[in-house]
Every structure is written in structure tokens, then in C-alpha cells.
């Protein structure tokens, strides 16, 4: 099997940096108020709660990214294999693929950050996330579909 789509390490690094940035902001706010949460203004307390929720969700997201397989998609002569975190490898025959598209991240739309690769077969739509060079992989799969 030849690897087709690999895990994006840029997304992992960006998430870690964003987590560190949010933790530093929380620490600075708490140190300004001498670590007494009751002294913080109500609006700033709400901001702190939001930062706590964002930090916790980022920790979960980083954990998923770390344990995600290095090789997300691979191919051979007859099929494309999807390697996921929780399920076994999923085999999608090339002759069953009807359409391939990418989804753009709404928050990073000006930079054309692709958040998902969608592979549509006769019976199911497969969503692949956390990959690098998704547009190139989409074009490669589209060429494979035309040849079959």
C-alpha cells in the first residue's frame, strides 16, 4: 500500500501554541488579581470561564491529534484505505467512489485552510480530517476515479 494522505503536524503545533497562549493569558489575569478569583470583575470572570473551556477542549483536541495515525489514507491498485483512530481500516473500492470534495474551514477561509476531505461512494460518505495537502489528495483521487 502506498501512503496517500499523512497527518498534519502544522495543525498540532498551531493547537499547542494556541493552548499555551490561552494559558499564559489566564495566568497573567490571575496573577494581576493575586490569584483571588473573587476579586476579578464579573465580565473578566466570564472571559476566564470561556478561556478555561477553550483550554480544556484544546487539550482534548491535541490528545486526539497526537494519537491519530500518521498515515490517514493509503491506496493500492483496487482500493483506498482509510485509517482511523477508533475503527479498523476502512476499504473503499475505487470503482465505488462517485465524488470527492474538500471542505474549507470557515474561520480560516481567506487562507484556504481545508478542514475535511469528503469521499462519496455509492452507499456512504467518508469524512477525513487532520490531513496535510488535502487539495492535492483530492485531485489525485479524482484522477483515479476518471481512470477506473
Tell me about this structure:
This protein is of the alpha+beta class and 148 residues long. The protein has 2 domains: 7-67; 71-147, PH-domain like. The protein is built from 3 helices and 7 strands, in the order βααββββββα. The chain has helices spanning 9-32, 42-67, 134-147, and strands at 2-6, 71-75, 79-82, 90-93, 97-104, 114-121, 125-129. The strands form 2 sheets. Strands 1-2-3-4 form a 4-stranded antiparallel β-sheet, with no helix packed on it. β3 and β4 form a beta hairpin. The longest helix is centred in the middle third of the chain and has 26 residues, at 42-67. It starts with a strand and ends with a helix. The mean pLDDT is 89.
Count helical runs.
3
Strand neighbour order, sheet with most strands: 1-2-3-4
The number of distinct β-strands equals 7
Order of helices and strands: EHHEEEEEEH
Q: In the CATH hierarchy, what is the class of the largest domain?
A: Mainly Beta
Question: How widely separated are the two ends?
Answer: 18 Å
CATH superfamily of the largest domain: Pleckstrin-homology domain (PH domain)/Phosphotyrosine-binding domain (PTB)
Enter the CATH topology name of the largest domain.
PH-domain like
Shape: elongated
Spans of at least 5 consecutive residues with low confidence = none
Beta-strand percentage range? 25-35%
Short description:
By secondary structure, the protein is α+β, with helices and mostly antiparallel strands. The protein is 43% helix and 26% strand. It has helices at residues 9-32, 42-67, 134-147, and strands spanning 2-6, 71-75, 79-82, 90-93, 97-104, 114-121, 125-129.
